Amino acid sequence: MATTDFIAAIELGSSRIAGIAGRKQSDGSIEVLAYACEDSAAFVRKGLVYNIDKAAHAIRNIVSSLEAQTGRSIAKVYAGVGGQSLRTVENQVSRTLDEEGIISGELVDELCDENRDLPLADMCVLDVAPQEYKIDNNLHADPVGVAGKHITGRYLNLIARNPLKKNLEQSFEKAGMKIADLLVAPTALAHAVLAENEMRAGCALVDLGAATTTVQVYKNNILRYLAVIPLGGNNITHDLTSLKIEENEAEQLKLHYGDALYQDTEEEGEAPAMCPLDDGRSAKLYDVNNIVGARAEEIIANAWNQIQLSGYENELFAGVILTGGAANLPNTEALFRNQSHMDKVHTAHSIQEAVQGVRLPEDGRQNTLLGLLAAGTDNCCVPEKPQPAPEPAQGSLDLDVEVVEKPEPPKPAEPKPETPKAPKPAETEKPSDGGKGGKRSSFFGSLFDRFRDGMLDDNSDSMDDSRN
Closest Cα partner for 168 from 9, 12, 378, 62? Predict the structure, then answer.
């Protein structure tokens, strides 16, 4: 892409709103040009925007910050949608042909359109993940071109409550920012974090967020299940306030001293380990992690239960992948292994592709935002306006013809000063005429002399005869 081409995306999470501008390189890497974030607790709760005015104000701030960093105006952005009400529901659509024939692409599209007409009360379909198609008695991932008489399409619809999408769209509209596309944030995250072989072999992606935990199950490169649990890292923070501390102090205790599998190694009679607070007080480390461990165990148990409800818990040959900000809690992987009895559990702190440009912390919190950027395809930068053509000269016509300038009239030649001629040497000295007559007198005088001499020669004989 040129320097004026980039993709912009905004994620409205439960703890923060974040925006990013960047571009995808030819080698698959991502170059981050700008990044900005703000706290969103005042207008987002469990993924749902509940204060549209505040959300619009925050969107304008994020866009202004991205524009200031890139030096370019942004025309549109990709937005991620996700939250507590997001889940999947299966649906089937069947069609019987008059006679056995080849399944066409038009027929498959008709089945997909019919699936989207699924009646839902106060819910809307955000996206559709087609499963296998059953043609007669065989399953096919790609049914086009297969011969058969009866086809059944199985679809996994990603649905959510209407306000989840409506409030998000109104927030961007009020902010005066056009949405390039509304992407399902969890699926964009999955395609950025999971490797293709993991999705093919079977895996579960658990995104441990601030207010929600999202569970996705993939098998044979197809999304098989998605559910959102209304529990997250903020629940641990809120529980710690029971130690009679402020929420910001509880958050710092969780980040610095929290442990999902804390084991007390103190011997009898030894002074307990303490966690100092900003106001000079302190809390026992055992008490802090007793609270942290209990809530973390509840979150992990619910996530594993959703994996079991998917029916694929025995087909996840690539194991479980953890991500998100709350996954940074120490020993979270070990806690999940204890709960699920699965050996393959690891944490994805960054996406699969290399990230260049503006340096972002690799703590898992940026993965969804980078996934939205990677899913974008359109240039979000306002194109440069063409430079205006120079105005035509006054009195001329603005036509696409060659203008021939009228030649200027030639200027009259200035008289050259007359160069004085050298006087001709006189053959014989002539009598002076008193200074009158100039050259004319001299000329006629000479002529008269020559004429006179000639007349005298011609008449001399006649004059002599007359004397005689």
Answer: 12
